[in-house]
Write a structure and sequence with these properties.
The protein is built from 14 helices and 7 strands. With 446 residues, it is of the alpha+beta class. The protein folds into 2 domains: 192 residues, no CATH class; 136 residues, Heat Shock Protein 90. The strands form 2 sheets. Strands 1-2-3-7-6 form a 5-stranded mixed sheet, with helices on one face. Helix 1 crosses helix 5 and helix 10 crosses helix 12.
């Protein structure tokens, strides 16, 4: 009975070790309350799991078959607890559990190799093999704990599953696929194996790590290419905005020059009309001249040339589409100037997205509101537009789209949010789409 209880406790510890390694992979993604809840769930399940294992061993007998059955299936409730707490991460859960199984396979192979080569034969045969293997597994886990923490805490870099979803799932199931075949073949074999078996199992682990490292390299390279492409798109967009603004300035300058050139003729004609007593015609001529001088003035939203250019270009774009515009831009002189380029790119993207969405509304229901303020280095931005169709939101709370050629605006928003540690809230309510942002200004960012 003591052996049965000891084995139940030992295997429960092994299952808790697996849960701990899987937890490390998600640790930085979890909120403090999620970590506490997962820990409490595991601590509550562990004694019950131990009692179930003991009852099973008592009923089925403690042998290699029952030992393997518990090892093969006992981790599932612990894994289910992780799924319950860490939600909407099915792809990453699948990958992490596969990598943890590879590590599980490695530690068991190391334990078996020690029994086979270093311990007396009595430890490798009969019922003595089971507690020996369990104890060695726990021993190797403790010895390699610093390495395990480093590996599993860095197991899920941000770019790992950022590409195509189908490709992501193919990569996620790869570790499970590597483990599945040998584990199925071993389920009805004895625990004792030869050195050739041990070498083959070590090679399996080696190839698993090799494929993982190559996938990291490929993912980093793809992310770098994507970032470079996105940077080029943003620079092109910024250049086009500046060119449009420059063209607008040139047009207004030419208008002023033309009016000034014609001013002499206006004055002569005006004097002639007055001399002839044609006062009504003279008054009409003065009104026409005023309209020429005041035609389509360029709005000055703020003192920053690049931010003003972005607002001017995209506000003009909205006006051409018949969108009612309400804006309030207030940037204090004390506001940092180092991030004007980033702010201009952000405004260009979010206002352009709002204009594109507004075009899909009926002509009389197009409306856009832009509020931008900076008070004591704290920036606040609100962009609202009418949009009746339901939006799809991604895991980060930002809208997603499958339309080809779209989505750059959200990439720009993510990059800005990350660079300036901005708080971002996107919502759709009562026929309005609202973007609310808040961040602390900085003089310059590398």
């Amino acid at each position: 009975m003591a052996l049965i209880l000891g084995m139940a406790v030992g295997i429960t510890l092994i299952q808790m070790i697996g849960a701990y390694l899987r937890y490390l992979a998600f640790e930085t993604r979890m909120l403090p309350e999620e970590r506490t809840r997962l820990r409490n769930y595991i601590l509550l399940w562990a004694p019950l799991s131990c009692a179930i294992y003991a009852a099973y061993f008592w009923h089925a007998g403690l042998d290699v078959a029952s030992f393997k059955h518990v090892q093969y299936f006992g981790w599932l409730p612990f894994f289910a607890l992780s799924l319950l707490v860490i939600r909407h991460e099915a792809m990453r859960h699948t990958f992490v559990v596969g990598m943890q199984m590879l590590w599980f396979f490695l530690l068991h192979t190391m334990s078996g190799a020690v029994i086979l080569t270093l311990l007396p034969p009595s430890f490798g045969t009969g019922v003595n093999r089971l507690p020996t293997q369990t104890a060695l597994y726990i021993f190797f886990f403790l010895v390699m704990l610093p390495l395990e923490r480093r590996i599993f805490r860095n197991l899920l870099p941000s770019h790992l599953f950022s590409g195509n979803r189908l490709a992501g799932w193919c990569f996620a199931v790869m570790p499970l696929g590597l483990c599945a075949t040998p584990l199925i073949l071993l389920i009805d074999r004895p625990l004792l194996f030869t050195m050739s078996d041990a070498i083959l199992r070590f090679v399996l682990f080696f190839w698993g790590i090799t494929l993982y490292q190559y996938s990291l390299y490929a993912g980093e390279r793809a992310a770098r290419i994507q970032n470079e492409r996105h940077t080029n798109e943003l620079l092109t967009q910024q250049l086009e905005a500046l060119e449009a603004y420059a063209a607008l300035l040139k047009s207004r300058t030419e208008d002023v020059q033309r009016v000034r050139h014609d001013l002499r003729h206006y004055n002569r004609l005006l004097a002639t009309l007055i001399d002839a007593g044609e006062f009504e015609k003279a008054r009409a001529l003065v009104g026409t001249q005023d309209k020429e001088l005041l035609a389509q003035p360029i709005a000055v939203y703020c003192e920053s040339p690049i931010v003003n250019a972005a607002l001017t270009v995209y506000m003009q774009l909205a006006k051409k589409d018949g969108i009612r515009i309400f804006y309030n831009v207030h940037l204090d002189k004390e506001c940092p100037q180092g991030g004007d380029n980033d702010l201009a790119i952000l405004l260009s993207n979010v206002i352009e997205n709002a204009v594109i969405a507004s075009r899909k509304q009926r002509a009389g229901e197009r409306e856009l509101r832009v509020l931008l303020s900076c008070d004591e280095r704290e920036y606040a931005l609100v962009v609202e537009n009418r949009f009746d169709a339901p939006l799809r939101f991604g895991e980060d709370g930002l809208p997603t789209t499958k339309e080809h050629g779209h989505g750059t605006g959200m990439v720009s928003l993510r990059n800005f949010s990350k660079k300036y540690d901005a708080t971002v809230l996107f919502e759709q309510k009562d026929g309005w789409v609202r973007l609310l942002m808040n961040w602390h200004g900085k003089e310059s960012l590398a």
